[in-house]
Amino acid sequence: MTDTAQQPTGGRRLFTRSAPYAPTRYQCYDGARLLAESAASFDPPVTAVIGIANGGTRPAAVIADCLEVPLYNVTARHNRTDEPWQQATGDVSVVLSNDLPDRFDGTVLLVDDIAGSGATFTAVARALGPKLGSSAVPKTLALCRNAGCTEGPDGWIWDVNNWVVFPWEASHDGDTRQLPVPKKVATP
Q1: How far is residue 162 CA from its own chain's centroid?
Q2: Contact 13/116 with Cβ under 8 angstroms?
Q3: Reported pTM
Q4: In a 10 Å sphere around its CB, with 0-12 CB exposed, 13-18 middle and 19+ buried, how is residue 4 labelled?
Q5: Are the CB atoms for 89 and 65 separated by under 8 Å?
Q6: In this structure, what DSSP letter does residue 20 have?
Q7: CATH class of the 2-160 domain in this structure
Q8: Rounded distance, CA 162 to CA 145, Å?
């Protein structure tokens, strides 16, 4: 495994500090399926999906399954704890697992559950740089994009301005708000 610390980057997350959003498991699945459908037309074609652990592994698995391409995972740590409403530090630690191929070609999808500031996508793309062949095109996809995000993603489902509690995380003690039914992929 390779551990690489990245230089701080990214925007400042925006939070209304009202009840956090809480998409359902079904909404997240439907959102990931929409992201896969949008990626199916990428040129060059998608050859691999890389889920950013922890949050990106579940949507990445859905996307890889829909596209019928290999799934890999990397670990990136941005928040120091799992407490809500943390501001982004831009300091992201990335761990690349030993099971990654020596070289990626074609479109390589980097998938996370949320792009809070964009720093995680930037750090993972930098860490993967030596493994990207000359024809490789990294693209970033997320279920949510915080309004303060300045670096990506290339596609997302929901714009949010508050904390998001995903179904694979510890439940939130208190009120939450639903997100609308996912209908389309947003792009920059």
Answers
A1: 16
A2: yes
A3: 0.87
A4: middle
A5: no
A6: P
A7: alpha beta
A8: 10
pLDDT tens digits, one per residue of 114-123: 998 888 999 9
What average pLDDT does the segment 73-94 reach? 71
Q: Where are the domains of the chain?
A: 2-160
Residue type, 124: V
Sequential DSSP letters for 45-96: PEEEEEEEETTTHHHHHHHHHHHT--EEEEEEE--SSS-SSPPP-S--EEEE
- Residues 12, 117: contact at Cβ < 8 Å? yes
81-85, 113-117, 126-130, 171-175, range with the lowest pLDDT: 81-85
- φ, ψ of residue 159 in degrees (nearest 5): -90, 130
Q: What is the pLDDT of residue 12?
A: 63
Neighbours of 147 (CB within 10 A): 14
Residue 36 to residue 155: CA distance in whole angstroms: 10
Beta bridge partners of 177: 21
Question: Which stretch of DSSP H or E encloses residue 157?
Answer: strand 155-160
